Amino acid sequence: MKIFSLTLLMVMIFCSTTFAEQNPPIISVSGEGIVEATPDRATISVGVVTREKNPSAVQNSNAKAAANVINAIMVLGIERKNISTGNYNFNPVYRHTDNGKRLLEGYEAANSVTIIVDDLKLVGKVIDAALNHGANHVDSLNFGLSNKTAYQDEALRLAVLDARHKAEIVAATLGKSILSVRSVSINSNHVSAPQNYKMVRAMAEDATVGVETPIESGILQCSASVHVEFEISR
User: Fold this and answer.
1) Number of domains in the chain
2) Residues 70 and 137 reside in one and the same domain
3) Are 60 and 151 part of one and the same domain?
4) Rounded distance, CA 227 to CA 58, Å?
5) If residue 72 lies in a helix (H) or strand (E), which one and from where to where?
6) 162-208 confidence digits (pLDDT tens)
């Protein structure tokens, strides 16, 4: 029995040693990849807010204003499929008196219209058309890419190359060589907001003269981050 136990122990030690010898050391590195891209699409959200004394009046006035906004935008060549209602709210409006009472003043309807613009030269015109035909404010303006997959793929490729380059430098410095890849994980791969983005509402000295809102789309950044473990020689 003792001979069997001793033999088993020796086999386990031998297997552990052999297993350790079969596992080469690793270099663990992170890689980053960035690709700049010029936006080719804009998403605009404008708000149409109306107030009236009774519910039906505010609903009708808001619907009319929203329809005017949509029609004015379509005149510019924006297809109906690229215009949608983002949000709609209907609420009573109260006024608080000095003695703490709450009085009903009327009703408010807020309609958010979202527009996708694929011709960036029309962004300023779309904003102006909306504001001049019933919209009260611009909720948001975001630039993006109609097809971002190619840019994300390139950023990911650059991130992997960056990781490989770092591992090769470390291995060479240690007098080693890279044998293979043990594991790869993608930490991130996304498109960030434009750099140097600016939207300015131009005001004319003469209210009867229209001045188009100037828009600068800026540059998008597609970035990726990976973590790679490389097996190296002993």
Assistant:
1) 2
2) yes
3) no
4) 56
5) helix 55-75
6) 999 999 999 999 999 999 999 999 999 988 876 544 444 443 333 33
Same domain, 31 and 47: no
Residue 111 has pLDDT above 60, yes or no: yes
Q: Which segments of the chain are extended strands (E)?
A: 26-37, 41-52, 83-96, 102-117, 137-144, 178-195, 198-199, 215-216, 219-232
Looking at residue 210, which CATH number applies to its domain? 3.30.110.170
Name which residue leads in pLDDT, 199 or 101. Answer: 101
Residue 9 in domain: no
Half-sphere exposure of 3 (CA within 13 A, CB side): 0
Global pTM value: 0.71
* Residue in the structure block whose two tokens are 């009319």: 64
Tell me the C-alpha distance between 177 and 170, whole Å: 9
Among residues 96, 125, 144, the one where a domain terminates is 144
Angle, vertex CA 183, rays to CA 177 and CA 188, nearest 5 = 115
Buried b (16+ CB within 10 A) or exposed e, 23-42: eeebbebebbbebebebbbb
**Whether residues 35 and 150 fall in one domain:** yes
Domain around 116: 41-144
Q: Report the distance separating Cα 31 and Cα 228, nearest Å.
A: 8
pLDDT in the model for residue 216: 77
